[in-house]
Every structure is written in C-alpha cells, then in structure tokens.
Amino acid sequence: MPVLGVIPARLGSSRLPRKPLLPLAGEPLILVVTRRIADLAICDRLVVATDAREIATVVQDAGFEAVMTGARERLEDDGALLAEMSSVLDSLHAHFQRAAAPSKP
User: Fold this and answer.
1) Is residue 69 part of a domain?
2) What is the pTM of this model?
3) Exposure on the CB side of residue 102, measured as CA atoms within 13 A
C-alpha cells in the first residue's frame, strides 16, 4: 500500500502565531519540515494540508504539493486532528491505516 504523508500547517497557533512561515536557517519552517520528511524517502506522496493560501503558495513555489483545508478552528486534540486529516485524505481520494500527529511530542 502506498504511503501518503500529510503535514498539517496552520497559521493560527495560539502559542506561536504564524509558526509555519517563521524563518529557520533562512527559509520558512514549513519548508524545513517538508524537505526533511521528503529526504527520508518514506512517503510515496507528501502533502502539506493548510488552511492558509499563504502557506500553500510557499510550499508549491518550492515544488511540493499543498492542499487547502476548511479547518480554521484550533485542532487541540488528537480526535479533531484525525478528523481533519480524514477530510484531507477524502479530498485526495486516499486511504490510510495509521495516522500520526507530528506537532505532538
């Protein structure tokens, strides 16, 4: 079964607003994360799921795939995150067996 990697990226973080676009080593954090996951070569397809056109543009301009979500509310628990990821997977016509929340330690 192909492996689909989904990286959730929202601008509305309460602890660090606009976190995905903050620079780290000269580029937006979302690109640092996306490149590192892509370099692992563990995903057949890697997608950044975002509620912000600004993030999608940065990701797409760097040659990666982005999909817009409808979620603007805070995803504070794993259930809400998994529900949003399920919605993204439906939009991509993909199926999954496991999901991970990369922003949770």
Assistant:
1) yes
2) 0.75
3) 14
